[in-house]
Design brief:
By secondary structure, the protein is of the alpha/beta class. Helices cover 38% and strands 21% of the residues. A hairpin with a 2-residue loop joins strand 11 and strand 12.
Length: 341
């Protein structure tokens, strides 16, 4: 194999994230990696994500390019990928996850809960909009698109009082500069996951290849994979798939593993707090370390990625949480959200 062609969206954040993977892939393979920038529907259509339907809006064109041989590897923000697998393609690695929290960006560091009534908060996410209203019902939520800099500039210029961003995106946006340089005088308030669960797969990258990719490329990409991250995001996406919600539905779900203990919080947000449907799961994962070791062994041998059963175990837990959410009324909320207005 010669140069490895790595496909990515054209946005500054996407290319920064792809650059992280490119450098790691060059280190592992010893081969040069070049970025192939691809324009997605979400990059050219400036309508709100909610009106576009969200699911696949950033991924479809990239996946077409990979399937057509225009690139060898794709890097996605996992939270933007539809839950259903793409025919002929496989997510071959999910590298170690970054900070999965959202942050509230303000001029003076006023906590979101303490902003005065009538203050304006920008977000394009129905899930974040619902969470803002739960924290502070007096706030006015404004629909927001654009890159990280343009969103923060609207706070800096006084057009908005706050914006909600992904912590990982803020840190990855300007590699090497640090968060303070990216904020340029603004203040970020972390929103803790136990009270503010984020999107399924948030802060995780997905590295996708064709299912008939060269075995050597598959082996190189496999070395990028972090099994604990893979388990957590597989579980979160199983919840999303189980309630048949898109990746931009008003659903927050986060799974965290600490010394063999699994904690999951999932919320489907209704019109108001009393309509929210919540499910939680706490469990000690017996034999988890042994299962991860087996997963790594079979993955590195080129065998089927889940012959160790690790991902099936994650999906089983996620499916169970989805059934609980549906039993408690989540189906009606998700149906209402995806129905045409």
């Amino acid at each position: 194999m010669g140069i490895i062609r790595l496909g990515t969206r054209r946005s500054a954040l996407a290319t920064a994230q792809a650059g992280i993977i490119a450098r790691e892939l060059e280190r592992i393979s010893g081969r040069p990696v070049e970025l192939v920038e691809i324009t997605s529907e979400g990059d050219v259509n400036r309508a709100s994500l909610a009106s576009l339907g969200g699911t696949g809006v950033f991924a479809t064109r990239l996946r077409e390019a990979l399937a057509a041989g225009e690139c060898d590897v794709l890097v996605h923000s996992l939270k933007d990928l539809p839950v259903a697998p793409a025919p002929g393609l496989v997510i071959a690695a999910t590298p170690s996850r970054a900070d999965a929290r959202d942050v509230s960006i303000t001029r003076d560091g006023t906590p979101l809960a303490e902003l005065p009534a009538g203050s304006t908060v920008g977000t394009g996410s129905p899930r974040r909009a619902a969470q803002v209203r739960r924290v502070n019902p007096g706030l006015e939520v404004r629909d927001l698109r654009g890159n990280v800099d343009s969103r923060m500039s609207r706070v800096r210029d006084g057009e908005l009082d706050a914006v909600i961003l992904a912590s990982a995106g803020l840190d990855r946006y300007r590699p090497g500069e640090g968060r303070a340089a990216a904020l340029r005088g603004l203040v970020a308030e972390p929103l803790e996951l136990d009270q503010w669960p984020t999107a399924a797969g948030q802060a995780s990258l997905a590295v996708e290849i064709r299912d008939d990719a060269h075995p050597q490329l598959r082996a190189w990409v496999a070395e990028l994979d972090d099994p604990e991250t893979r388990f957590a995001v597989e579980l979160e996406r199983a919840v999303l798939g189980g309630i048949e919600a898109g990746c931009h539905a008003p659903v927050g779900v986060h799974a965290e593993i600490d010394e063999g203990w699994l904690q999951v919080c999932a919320v489907v947000f209704g019109d108001a707090r009393p309509d929210d449907v919540v499910a939680a799961h706490v469990d000690h994962l017996q034999g988890f370390e042994k299962q991860i070791a087996e997963y790594i062994q079979v993955r590195d041998s080129g065998a089927a990625v889940d012959s160790a059963g690790l991902l099936a175990r994650a999906s089983e837990i996620g499916d169970g949480l989805a059934r609980r959410l549906l039993d408690n009324g989540a189906a009606e909320i998700v149906t209402r959200e995806v129905s045409p207005s």
